Amino acid sequence: xxxxxxxxxxxxxxxxxxxxxxxxxxxxxxxxxxxxxxxxxxxxxxxxxxxxxxxxxxxxxxxxxxxxxxxxxxxxxxxxxxxxxxxxxxxxxxxxxxxxxxxxxxxxxxxxxxxxxxxxxxxxxxxxxxxxxxxxxxxxxxxxxxxxxxxxxxxxxxxxxxxxxxxxxxxxxxxxxxxxxxxxxxxxxxxxxxxxxxxxxxxxxxxxxxxxxxxxxxxxxxxxxxxxxxxxxxxxxxxxxxxxxxxxxxxxxxxxxxxxxxxxxxxxxxxxxxxxxxxxxxxxxxxxxxxxxxxxxxxxxxxxxxxxxxxxxxxxxxxxxxxxxxxxxxxxxxxxxxxxxxxxxxxxxxxxxxxxxxxxxxxxxxxxxxxxxxxxxxxxxxxxxxxxxxxxxxxxxxxxxxxxxxxxxxxxxxxxxxxxxxxxxxxxxxxxxxxxxxxxxxxxxxxxxxxxxxxxxxxxxxxxxxxxxxxxxxxxxxxxxxxxxxxxxxxxxxxxxxxxxxxxxxxxxxxxxxxxxxxxxxxxxxxxxxxxxxxxxxxxxxxxxxxxxxxxxxxxxxxxxxxxxxxxxxxxxxxxxxxxxxxxxxxxxxxxxxxxxxxxxxxxxxxxxxxxxxxxxxxxxxxxxxxxxxxxxxxxxxxxxxxxxxxxxxxxxxxxxxxxxxxxxxxxxxxxxxxxxxxxxxxxxxxxxxxxxxxxxxx
Length: 699
Ligand code: ADP
Ligand code: MG
Description:
alpha/beta, binds adenosine-5'-diphosphate, disordered C terminus, 24 helices, 40% helix
């Protein structure tokens, strides 16, 4: 049965109104959408607790009891109704803050009820607040055992779409379709991997027959979900590799060698060498390179990028490097121009604030080929920017760019240039596999020698004076400090006041001692921002107060302290990025996380992760576990909305690895999925990924 084509509107118990809410809130329209609306948890209703066994430490439980002494107490906001539930073993208090009329009318002291809820202890008495009540005879005919609980929203509740009703709708779907759900995996595959059939899996997800069948059902659905993602992405990768020709960088020549032997400022780390080799092999393979370079903050990606650009130049191609912010692009430009100054290479910077005249000169140079390296921001993407022969495109901090933007760079030559995207926000392996599975990956897993690990401390806002004294001591040694405020959206007035108040406080303390303070934030004009940054880079200002605009890439090795105000408001990867601004020189560096006393559990875990490790990959893993992949930086822009319905990348890494291996095996034998046996795979992929397909070519 084609479940995707059946509208739930016509299902008994749904109707126009509920259907509209389901569509608006959960994008549920068809039977299929509904069946894949999976419960977020299950409650064990297989056991009935004697009241005497209840404690305040239990999850949701149920008891079988009669109810007496229903009464209302308190007034105004404290108005509530209470009752006593009792069985042969003891008594328990029930409490309600609303629904009084219903209770008064419905509760019958002679009836036995199944009472369901989470016990808590108040005044040393055990009670259940807002229990669910079902009269016992009625429930005894209903399903007991595991009960599915569905996520709902306020709007849904208002439309009487609570978890129970959703469950009822699911039941109606199964009644209507009478076992007819078309299988989405071939029979041989199901048998080979010992999977549950789709119909049974979907049924058990909503109405588990036993803990074991629930486990098997979940496994089948996760397995399938991840399998198709991998099959799709790997198929596209194979296709891209056989379809797109690439420029052939045949030689490593004059530019590279001269620089490498005469001007390299320090020895490359082994990881840098390895990565350059990998990139060189790709670029010389006549296939187009599409590679992701991951390296923790400070691992030296810029130098790798530059050396690769030299190889492009050696083969008479142009190269460009795109960065997400003007500050960063400018810094790259200056670093690279300085490094290359003896080699007679033409380098230009193109950003939003490049003047018209200069812009025209750059455009000309690009078209006639006299300009060899172009560094810049989004400005590179404009249609007027055309190249004589672009061979290599490097994108720094790629998570800051949308896929569509990156796609534009591809189109700047008839044969697409080799593409290297770099990121300092390490992506957990599972996420990289599903998001960027079609990219080859290189990793710089080694920091340049002599770096001292950054010491990270957590302290409270009340101790600001001590923090100031600590900063002062570092400044006395000739060092510099960053103080960062959360300004998630640069327009938030309240945050802005915090930033300015902080700036003033710092000025009051440090200015009399002869230390100047700078401030940057998103409201400054690019030129002003740059001026402030430059004052800090040249050490005219010793402390830089800023928002997260300094988050990516900026390199001031003399800065050894990073103070992060209201650290509880930042995400983990953001904290790690910010911390990466220090620890870039030989000095011991510090990162001080300031928070208020009251912080949430998740915030506490983030702070603990930060103080316990400097390893970006470990942090990315922790982040994935805490937040789930949907929120991870980069996933929204990636074009591949990572909306997994059943699987969880934080928890299902083992399944992912397995299905990835299986998908690879299938594709090695049948890259276009043309075999009779694989027909269903091809159909499913087409169905599942029809709207996204083009994005996979690009990344
Ligand atoms: P990121 O990977 O975060 O972009 P950068 O490329 O900005 O890091 O490099 C961080 C710092 O490390 C720079 O000051 C750079 O000059 C320096 N660096 C890069 N490679 C090496 C190396 N092999 N040895 C010593 N220092 C290096
Ligand atoms: Mg960088």
